[in-house]
Amino acid sequence: MTMDPAVSLGRGLVLPNPVGVASGTFGYGFEAERMGPIAHLGAVYSKGTTLLPREGNRPPRISETSAGMLNSIGLQNPGVEVVARDYAPRWREWSVPVVVNVAGAGITEYVEVCERLSDVAGVAGLELNISCPNISHGMDFGTDPKRAKALVEAVRRVTELPLIVKLTPNVTDITEVGRAVEDGGADAISAVNTYLGMKISVKERKPVLPGMGTAGLSGPAIKPLALAAVAKLRRAVELPLIGIGGIGSTEDALEYLVAGADAIQIGTANFYRPGVSAEVLSGLIQFATDNSLQSWRDLRWSD
Amino acid sequence: MIRSAVKSASELCGQSDLSRAVDEFATCTSVELLQGTLFEIRFHAPRVAAAAAPGEFAQLLVDEGQVPLLRRPFSFSRVDISEGTVSFYLAAVGRGSSRLRLLHPGDRIRVLGPLGRGFSLPSSPGRSLLLAGGLGAAPFPLLMDQLIGRGEEVIWLNGSRSSSELYPDHLLPSGIQSRLIRTQDGSKGDPGLVTEGLPELMGVVQRIYACGPNPMLAAVYRSWASEVAAGHTAASLEVSIEAPMGCGFGTCLGCAIPLAAEGDESGPIGLCCRQGPVLPAQQLNWDQLLNQPAHLG
Ligand SMILES: Cc1cc2nc3c(=O)[nH]c(=O)nc-3n(C[C@H](O)[C@H](O)[C@H](O)COP(=O)(O)OP(=O)(O)OC[C@H]3O[C@@H](n4cnc5c(N)ncnc54)[C@H](O)[C@@H]3O)c2cc1C
Ligand SMILES: Cc1cc2nc3c(=O)[nH]c(=O)nc-3n(C[C@H](O)[C@H](O)[C@H](O)COP(=O)(O)O)c2cc1C
Ligand code: FES
User: Fold this and answer.
1) What number is the ipTM of this complex?
2) CB proximity A166 to B under 8 Å
3) In contact, B281 and B216? CB cutoff 8 Å
4) pTM for this model (two decimals)
5) What are the structural domain ranges in chain B?
6) What is the fold, at CATH topology level, of the domain defined by A7-57+76-196+218-299?
């Protein structure tokens, strides 16, 4: 292949190829590293990281649905200090860029986490999760364009790291929030996070998952919805887009590139097909060769 | 919600060695239908077989076509390293297990394993009590095989609701010292629960291994804990437990189990797939475990 598979997400963040693994579906990369090679990856997006350690929600936390799964993990993570101090030095030894996914309960927490990670070697970029449905108020930033913009501006002031903002699909018009974070100074947008869903047990006459019973839906079931969100965003913003939702094959990844994504993330499929990212990448490269692509952008749908 | 001073789950209980797991394209070599919906399914998976240990499990990708989407965890039930086969003992209870029952010799599916932490084996021989309720018998033939191979005396206590749910004798290895059967309806063996008469048995063994529904395991734990407290037994107790699993290797954080920490009633959250599925019984928070809805699937 003559084409360079690398993709640029802005502010100097260049991924060796478009195939990344989504936050919360790959831990901090260390489990996968034990199980097989990971050097082929375009990027690892870490588990959502908060200021202090979080224990996460009480079980049960997951349940399978038709071609999908619901999760209510509750952002279990060791806190930013452990990530910066213990994990980042290990990432420094990797050729794969690691983007830390950041979550918080308010602007102050996001700012503090991002500040802590700012000059840490081994951290290639930040992905702001303004859309986690599993902690109270976690979705407020992602559903309100003004607050989303204010958050991005506040984080932008404290870090020179490439800043990706991850959007929730649980809004009336995802392009409004997309434009707001572009105005706020984001370098790239990733879309989408999980859809709000529920599963009911008729036997128990209540939802399967605890609390309100709502949880995040992911997997092949959401792919058509997520593709539509990415295609809409492509028409609304100039920023590089990372497409996420139900990707489990080369064909799925290609569909996102056609819809306007510059890169993709594989999520739930990592659970049932731990080798999937390597297959998708080699499939993409094969496709590029067979079709004499000059750039992934050649795939884009233009009307 | 926030805890930092408390020991982490892996500090407290250790964790599985993921470097041994292989995702192997396995060929089904037999499906033996047993009583009711029970069956034993065998696969040729030489790399998984070579690494599998008692109490560890594999994740079976029942269908590449996304329904059901997630893999299903099953404990290694019997392993034949020379033939390169692994067998699983299960009941057709839902989408995944029912599909497996319909596989034919020659069909191929992905089998990822070994995963999790299994039973600990004795360094010098003594006597072990293996206690199973219903499908909880699954991991024991392999464990027995290895215990007997080390010169251990094995007492096999198998309980179930009725005789149709007992583990079939013809699949057990030879060399078991004594076999005790309990059925709740009295259709075979002694009528009653596996926990009846347990204290006496606990007094004459060095090790107890248990697998079955959570309420049964909790009852075994309580009985054991009071015997230990009374100084009537010094036996260890290991249990194999279940949790819904998204991955089986520690990345989805879906298989949370409540651990017990010393001096702290509710310990950290552990992962069934990494700290378990086999744990020393005292490392689990049984009150919380019992409060969890079971098998809402
Ligand atoms: C580490 C580990 C090891 C396991 N080892 C074994 C094993 O060796 N043999 C074995 O049979 N099972 C074992 N299980 C349980 C097994 O994984 C589940 O029974 C299986 O996933 C059910 O999948 P399914 O698709 O058939 O059912 P699903 O379609 O997921 O569920 C369908 C229905 O069955 C019910 N259901 C699910 N599981 C059970 C169950 N265990 N008993 C009764 N009802 C149930 C659900 O509530 C649901 O209503 C193990 C589980 C774990 C976590
Ligand atoms: C178990 C689980 C945990 C997740 N945790 C996070 C998280 O911590 N932060 C985040 O931004 N997204 C998280 N996600 C969302 C995924 O990154 C991804 O956006 C979503 O699952 C859709 O992609 P998929 O259909 O390929 O899984 C999680 C998803 C799953 C299934
Ligand atoms: S099953 Fe995914 S973390 Fe245990």
Assistant:
1) 0.96
2) no
3) no
4) 0.96
5) 18-115, 120-237, 241-297
6) TIM Barrel (3.20.20)
